[in-house]
Predict the structure.
Amino acid sequence: MRRCFQLAEQGRGIVSPNPLVGCVLTLGERIIGEGYHHEYGSHHAEVNAVNSVQDPSLLSQATAYVNLEPCAHHGKTPPCADMLIKHQVQRVVISNRDPFDEVDGKGIERLKAAGIQVTVGVLEDEGLWLNRDFFTHHTKQRPFIQLKWAQTSDGFFDKSRLTNELGSTWITAPSTRKLVHAMRGDADAILVGIKTVLIDNPELTVRDVAGKNPLRVVIDLNNAIAEGHRILNDEAPTLIINGSKSITQGSNEWLQVSPNQVFEDLMNALHERKVQRLMVEGGAFTIQRFLMNELWDEAMVLEGNKTFGAGMKAPSIPQKAAQVYMYGQDRIYQYRRS
Ligand SMILES: NC(=O)c1ccc[n+]([C@@H]2O[C@H](COP(=O)([O-])OP(=O)(O)OC[C@H]3O[C@@H](n4cnc5c(N)ncnc54)[C@H](OP(=O)(O)O)[C@@H]3O)[C@@H](O)[C@H]2O)c1
């Protein structure tokens, strides 16, 4: 099953809104085939695994390991449960049942009805974490929310600024910034508050690493964003959450929300757009709002060696233990909400 997870992981940042799935076919102690889901709309992992087997006559004695329940519906491809039944595999071992309405146990039932031995729940928690974006989308009707910020070793988020002083302040090393771009590539959307747009004027695209640009989202209830801000360039689509208009101009969409239910409207809008992972990049006010509303699943705090002595205090996550990693000269604190 861990090999299935390794294979599945290769689709991260590519297959969304589909889940990450890997499949391994064994005969006794020997792996006779393996595959994973490569691209949204293309073959599922089970099909790629079966196609990789050199001698298909062995399939009727094989065990199929797959991290997610084989599908039972005609989506962009035919049902994988039927394909495994057609090849008469002996046993199917599954990590997680698929919560997607059109599957949700039907694949398992179909395999069992065909006389195939089925085991479900192998390394279940690891499987849930692998597909955290997909499971959060289907079970909570909102994206998996990853908060990310940089702070100095004395706990500041930004230096003290003179009135109207613009431009971003770097806190972490260049290698850590590259990691942030890789994290962006794994997200379906990146969100910031309007002050970050006005002060830093970020582009919020994936650079320095390979990866697709996520949807850019800004909370700007009073429409302070202006032509010329980089977030409105055509490098990626942008969603401007605002209090007065719903219009689309080129790749930029303004969506009117109710000021007293910003998060509710935002979560619905992201769910409708099949955003399964949202990365919240700042600023401190915006991150604090997500924390206060308990709308987060993971927080990645990147701590540089610099000190500011004074400035904007970084958000804090009370009563939570973090995993701590060194990344070059910076430290990364990873908090998981549950
Ligand atoms: N260290 C880092 O990782 C990092 C990352 C990003 C930015 N920064 C720095 O952070 C600073 C900006 O941070 P900030 O805390 O001042 O501002 P911010 O979080 O970027 O923007 C705050 C504004 O966004 C709007 N907003 C956000 N969430 C909202 C919600 N739930 N409901 C209603 N409105 C919401 C409000 O706009 P209105 O005022 O219009 O209502 C609010 O005043 C900049 O100096 C930037 O350089 C640092």
The mean pLDDT is 96. Residues 2-132 form a domain with the Cytidine Deaminase; domain 2 fold (CATH 3.40.140.10).
